[in-house]
Amino acid sequence: MKLGFHISIAGGFKKVTERAIKRECATIQLFSRNPRGWKYTQLDEEDISIFTKDITRYSIDPVFVHMPYLPNLCSEDDELFNKSVKSLIEDLNRSERLNAQFLIVHIGSNRNKKVGMERMIKGINQAFSKIRNGVILLIENTAGAGNELGYNFEDLGTILNEIEDQKRIGVVLDTAHAFEAGYDLRTEKAVDETIKNFDRNIGINRLYLIHFNDSRTKLGSRSDRHWHITRGEIGKGMGYIINHSAFKHLPFIMETPRTDTKEDIMNMKIAKSLIKEI
């Protein structure tokens, strides 16, 4: 099992590996550009060369890229939809250049679930037809805040089934989002039932990553608030999650709150302490 964090790219990609090592990361997630804007600069060849050599040198693998927050592939607004598809294509390309095997995308929002899901499917298929590479796109489950789609496993399964290139699509399961969407993870029995539900509607074979986050808000809150491992509402359930047999070969990425490195070091220590020797 590999554990890691979402790592800042401030100062360039060449700074990422140093930050990852300080946190004892065996795997990492990062943005390829500013996550809160549409504009982006071209990747600097020297910068990405240093990054790709460093992650190989320190055996940090796999690498996950997370898309920016602004794209909404579920939007009925054609301008926003087209910008979102273009953004997806750009990040698929950037992921490949960063030697990242996976790109993570959030399900967008739409008041009309049926229309929103159809737009999402259309957008992904369009992007895949424009760029053909080996990067696998992972759809992330949401907490269901506001008009967010993709908070229940049935809808995620429906979207996945309609993607034309099945080899290039998969899922990341965020534990905080699942809990906030109403999937109980506080007991061993609850974790087992939630995983069976996931497998029935999506398929464990489509799961490539766990976003290992506790929740600051209660079960079914529909409020996306990550918290420190075992110190949130999921609590002891985090131990049942990390030790479940269905997840034993998966990487775990933490997106827990931080003001500096010490919180990440604390969460890494706690996560490692939860893992039972087999």
TrEMBL record:
SMART domains: AP2Ec. It is an enzyme of class 3 (hydrolase). Keywords: DNA damage, DNA repair, Endonuclease, Hydrolase, Metal-binding, Nuclease, Zinc. Its cofactor is Zn(2+). The keyword Transmembrane helix does not apply. Transmembrane segments: none annotated. Gene3D superfamilies: Divalent-metal-dependent TIM barrel enzymes. Residues 25-263 form the Xylose isomerase-like TIM barrel domain. Endonuclease IV plays a role in DNA repair. It cleaves phosphodiester bonds at apurinic or apyrimidinic (AP) sites, generating a 3'-hydroxyl group and a 5'-terminal sugar phosphate. PANTHER family: APURINIC-APYRIMIDINIC ENDONUCLEASE (PTHR21445:SF0), ENDONUCLEASE IV ENDODEOXYRIBONUCLEASE IV (PTHR21445). This is Probable endonuclease 4. It comes from candidate division WOR-3 bacterium.
